Amino acid sequence: MPQTLELHSPLLLGIFLVLGCGVTGCGPSQPVPGENVLEGRVIFLDPGHGGTAETDDFRVGPTGEREEWVNLRVALLLGDMLEARGARVFMSRTEDVAVPLQDRADSAVAHGADVFLSIHHNATADPAVNFPIIYFHGNASENQASVALGRFVARELREALFAGESPVSLVSDHVIFPAAGAAVLRHSYGIPGIIGEASFFTHPPEEERLKDPDHNRREAEAYVAALVAFFAEPGLPIEEKYSTGQVPPFQVFQEADRMNEEAERWKENYLLGLGLMEAGTPGALAEAYELFTLSARSFPDSWVASDCHRHRAEILEALGRYQEAEQERRRVQEFYVAVPD
Question: The whole model's pTM is what?
């Protein structure tokens, strides 16, 4: 059974930073041919949320299955699988209890984690939506190790749960939390880490699958395969955060607001915007810009959001607003990463 959360001491944190895996981070070392790449690796698993049944009503599927329960089931299975392969596993929680976000990240740092995995499942207003979303922290050009991990996780989740047929998003956490990103990734920056949203419990058929232990096991196995692939590659760097500059924040709908009727029209607004782009008149472009903006605000981590920002940049340039257009192009470059089929 994976070990439970243990808050770090200043001494342990100091040792970890001296070893070079703190502010600037360190990816996996070059593997020895034929070795078990998980042997001895320290994996920190963070089952998202916990103990929230009394405080929110949006982390729940159509028939009452709660996200925090699914997160924990998958994480417990994953921990057992990783330990069976020789990894050292620590967890932020092993029960349905609330754990402060700072404590989750601090514990990962204190244990000298080689990887930080925060296990989640997603929700949105549109019940037809169901695909994986993977978040890394900050700018893609600086957080290369986490982006590499995210690519492997996205690929394996898509194959295991969607037979390779689903869109997938690999995005910065700044697309959903524009000011500072997600707390658990922000405070553990320097460790290759991601938040994995494997699927949407607001999609009724998926909610039923998420109740199935075999489905949970397939998801856990996908994470194992992703970690094996990640550790089998040479390590990539994690640079000082914002060393290449910050992308201006783009305000988006937050949590419960993403469950409203306006948010449900995210794809409709995107498609209407595409049609207006073809018209090409100044009035049509202005209307298209507003529709792309609304789609991106409603569902900023969707598989069309990067396209919305790309078209926003094109329209801004057509209007002579060149600096804003360049900012939008940089947003796409740093915050939206392509995942090959």
Answer: 0.90
